[in-house]
């Protein structure tokens, strides 16, 4: 589904990604871990098409299609979802209305009719129950005065509503208490299917107790320096990142 080949990306004259190769198949969960400043957020931003970064070599393919010429919105419409480490506030737009617009824009971009209002309400009800989100929350202004946990929960709600082909969760676990973490993980696990793939970016192993990855990659200094199964996450938890730094 997602194929990242020899990806190099820069910001200004600073090269941040220095030749990344990752293959993600449908149905898989990949975790990307690594010390701060390794390039994890840059990698997710480049996959999503953030135009602040320049791809200087290599490419990102989604279902065989080179994404290079696609704007972030076009990638989103093709099913690429990136959670935001620092979500924006949109005063006056409720969580529900934001979701309705996002869903209908995606459908329109894919040549589908708008979702009928009754179906929309049903889906919103189902997904919000799944994520233990209460009614009051749905009518609040997007991200305005949201606690860290509420922001994260809202991101996962968006993800559950949009049912993306490829979901990238960038440090969705930071700032979550254990209950919120469990709810977020539940949402992610329910989204998981044979048709989509999930990339979980995290600094800590904790989230991976709840969202069990098929593969773990360690990103350090712009390169994947180690890949393995879920046991690699435990090894990192135990030993920290210093040995990775020493080896590279
Ligand atoms: P991580 O998510 O692994 O902590 P980032 O991708 O955020 O790492 O950052 C990787 C490196 O790129 C860091 O050295 C960071 O300072 C640098 N970097 C990221 N974004 C920018 C930017 N907009 N301008 C300048 N440097 C940046
Ligand atoms: Mg960071
Ligand atoms: Mg980051």
TrEMBL record:
The keyword Nucleotide-binding applies. Residues 2-246 form the ABC transporter domain. Keywords: ATP-binding, Nucleotide-binding. The keyword ATP-binding applies. It holds the Pfam family ABC_tran. Gene3D superfamilies: P-loop containing nucleotide triphosphate hydrolases. PROSITE patterns: ABC_TRANSPORTER_2. It comes from the Bacteria. One of its GO terms (molecular function) is ATP binding. Belongs to the ABC transporter superfamily. Ycf16 family. This is Fe-S cluster assembly ATPase SufC. It comes from Flavobacterium circumlabens. The lineage of its organism: Bacteria, Pseudomonadati, Bacteroidota, Flavobacteriia, Flavobacteriales.
């Amino acid at each position: 589904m997602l194929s990242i080949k020899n990806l190099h990306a820069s910001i200004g004259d600073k090269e941040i990604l220095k030749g990344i190769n990752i293959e993600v198949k449908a149905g898989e969960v990949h975790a990307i871990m690594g010390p701060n400043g390794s390039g994890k957020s840059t990698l997710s931003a480049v996959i999503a098409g953030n135009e602040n970064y320049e791809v200087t070599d290599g490419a990102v393919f989604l279902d065989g299609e080179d994404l290079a010429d696609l704007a972030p919105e076009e990638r989103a419409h093709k099913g690429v979802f990136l959670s935001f480490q620092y979500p924006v506030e949109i005063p006056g737009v409720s969580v529900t209305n934001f979701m309705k617009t996002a869903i209908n824009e995606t459908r329109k971009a894919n040549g589908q009719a708008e979702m009928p209002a009754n179906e929309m309400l049903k889906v919103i009800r189902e997904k919000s129950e799944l994520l233990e989100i209460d009614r009051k929350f749905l009518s609040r202004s997007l991200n305005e005065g949201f606690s860290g946990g509420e922001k994260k929960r809202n991101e996962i709600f968006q993800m559950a509503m949009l049912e993306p082909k490829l979901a990238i969760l960038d440090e969705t676990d930071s700032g979550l208490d254990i209950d919120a973490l469990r709810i977020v993980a539940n949402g992610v696990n329910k989204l998981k299917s044979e048709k989509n793939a999930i990339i979980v970016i995290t600094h800590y192993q904790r989230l991976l107790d709840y969202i069990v990855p098929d593969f773990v990659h360690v990103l350090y200094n712009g390169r994947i320096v180690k890949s393995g199964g879920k046991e690699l996450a435990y090894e990192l938890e135990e030993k920290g990142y210093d040995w990775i730094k020493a080896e590279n």
